[in-house]
Amino acid sequence: MGRPYGIPGPSAAAASSRALAGGRLSREPGLIDPAVEELLRFWPPVVEFRRTAARDVVLAGQPVRRGDKVVVYHASANRDESVFPDPDRLDLTRTPNDHVSFGFGPHFCVGARLARIQMAALIRRVVAGLPGLELASDAPPKRLVSNFQNGLKELRLRWA
Predict the structure, then answer these.
(1) How crowded is residue 30: how many other Cβ atoms within 10 Å of its Cβ?
(2) How far apart are CA 155 and CA 136, in angstroms?
């Protein structure tokens, strides 16, 4: 699968699985863009980011003082039940989808647009040009061990 890390690994795993895509993306290509956003929400490419509070604030009822270190766990933020109905369910048609997988505000990822384009291109190729491709049931994906990046080292596929 090329690089052993990054965004395409998780999206390939999900898009190539009949259980997740169910052939619907090939029949309804207009769902690919919402599917990209849901895959980013469900499996964000970055695990966490630490920031330093610039001023005293109260966050979710907790005081944060200027200079305190604050960690944002993207997977947790992307499963906030006050923002996402049924947040633990992968819904490739979910809209709106206000995930924070690429950060927010001045720290928004400058490569976000390119990543989305790459993911959509990969999914289009898998669903249109590689019918029958699915996850190999005998070999679970091997995850990248990292405190920063969420990705795969190995993803075994098979032709159905």
Answers:
(1) 8
(2) 8
- 51 Cβ neighbours under 8 A, 6+ residues apart: 69, 70, 71, 72, 107
Report yes or no: 64 and 3 within 8 Å, Cβ to Cβ.
no
Find out whether 127 and 21 touch, Cβ atoms under 8 Å.
yes
87: which 2 tokens?
Answer: 């947040």
Tokens 């964000």, residue located: 44
Question: How many angstroms separate the CA atoms of 88 and 78, rounded?
Answer: 9
Strand 69-73 and strand 48-52: the pairing is antiparallel
Interior CA angle at 86 toward 108 and 145, to 5°? 55
In whole angstroms, give the CA distance from residue 67 to residue 125: 47
E strands of 22-139, at which residues? 48-52, 57-59, 62-64, 69-73, 133-135
Residue among 122, 160, 140, 146 at smallest CA distance from 1: 122
Question: Which pLDDT tens digit goes with each residue over 52-102?
Answer: 999 999 988 999 999 999 998 998 999 999 999 999 988 888 999 999 999
pLDDT band at 4 (very low <50, low <70, confident <90, very high): very low
